Amino acid sequence: MFHQSLDYSSSIGYIEFEDGKSANKWVHHNEVAKVKKAKNLDRKALESKFLGSMLGCALGDAIGELAFRYTTEDSLYHAIDEASILRYTDDTAMMIGIAQVLCQNGDLDSSSLGNRFRGNFKKEPWRGYALGPPQIFSLTEKGYSYTQAAQMLFGGKGSFGNGAAMRVAPVGLYFYDSPDLVEKVYVSAEVTHTHPLGKDGAAVLAKAIAEVINCKRDSDLSPKTFCDDLSPVAATSHFSEKIYDICNFVVTNSSRTKSAKELGTNVTAHGSVPFAIFCFLKNRNSFENCLQDAILAGGDRDTIGAMACAVSGAHLGVEKLPADWLEKLENVSYMRELAVKMAELKKGLPCK
Ligand SMILES: [Mg+2]
After folding, report:
1. How, if at all, do strands 2-6 and 12-17 pair?
2. CATH number at residue 245
């Protein structure tokens, strides 16, 4: 156990342990400030945000998948009305896998997570998985670790697809107040994505979720400050430059079409995560408008929907998600259980 003291005159914070041993660890001022702020969130508010993010991710994924066939707003809304079930894809299946491991172990390690991904894939291989995960699962059956197998993809460079970002919501939620957030994101990413850009995509999206949980009022959410806070978690200059672009497009009220063209809507992490964050920031008062911008611009619709709506749901809380959509969402009761359990575990954890 330890307590924290802050030195606001400098840019760094100081953690002091109760046994009197001095500075064992230095952390960035902002991280410490957010750990301190986060303690004030009550369980109900935390639950609402956890539910909003996980169910938002699943809705974005399921409705994004529909948008491949119904590409206009009118036809899409008609298709949602007509649907008896909103069926999610691999994005949500893997998001559930992370939440399952967190609920079971209270933490993440690559072996537990990889085994869970593999088990879920074997039960439901029809969820629309990319080629990478099954290749990795086959390699692990020959004795390679998940991270070794993931590194072997793409000629030994690892994947820089958006697969680690699409499923990262539970990591951003569970570690939103932890200085270890990025480290935990990397553990979750490296099971399948070892390229620095693939890891950056997951880290930036998880940080966006952590940021909105710590931001209590919409008026506190300035696009510039938000993007400034995201930028340091990107390890590649390519990603940090894109984050700067997001801010510019939001403050100049850039259109969906123009922003999608410039930021990208493809299957790479750097070619989709920035647009997803743009869609959230531009529509931070409306889950539905965020979803529309994310999935009606073309490209990797289900995954961009999942990513943008995971942030929007975490920001707005589950009460702002359309109730009639939630009623039709596949496995919604199970996802609710996981989100509530994660929030319960979280409130029971000692402060880091
Ligand atoms: Mg998918």
Report:
1. antiparallel
2. 1.10.4080.10
CA 64 – ligand 1 centroid, Å: 9
Residue of 178, 2, 38, 50 lying closest to 107 (CA atoms)? 178
pTM above 0.90, yes or no: no
Please check the confidence at residue 114 and state whether its pLDDT lies above 90.
yes
**Dihedral angle over CA of 337, 340, 341, 345, nearest 10:** 180
Instruction: Indicate whether 31 belongs to any domain.
Output: yes
Question: 24 is written with which tokens?
Answer: 């064992």
For 125-148, what is the mean pLDDT? 96
Mean pLDDT confidence for 281-297: 97
| pLDDT digit string, tens, across residues 47-65 | 999 999 999 999 999 999 9
- Could you give the CA distance from residue 273 to residue 130 in angstroms, rounded to a whole number? 17
Q: What residue numbers bound the domain in which 111 lies?
A: 25-126+160-347
Q: Has residue 291 been placed in a domain?
A: yes
Nearest to 35, CA basis, from 341, 340, 349, 318? 349
- Whether 223 contacts 244, CB under 8 Å: no
CA of 131 to the centre of ligand 1 (A): 12
Domain count within the chain: 1
Tell how far the Cα of 311 is from the centroid of ligand 1, in angstroms: 17
The answer as to whether 10 is a domain residue is no
- Give the C-alpha separation, 59 to 53, whole Å: 10
Distance 129 CA to ligand 1 centre (A): 7
What DSSP letter does each residue of 178-190 carry, written as one string?
A: -TTHHHHHHHHHT
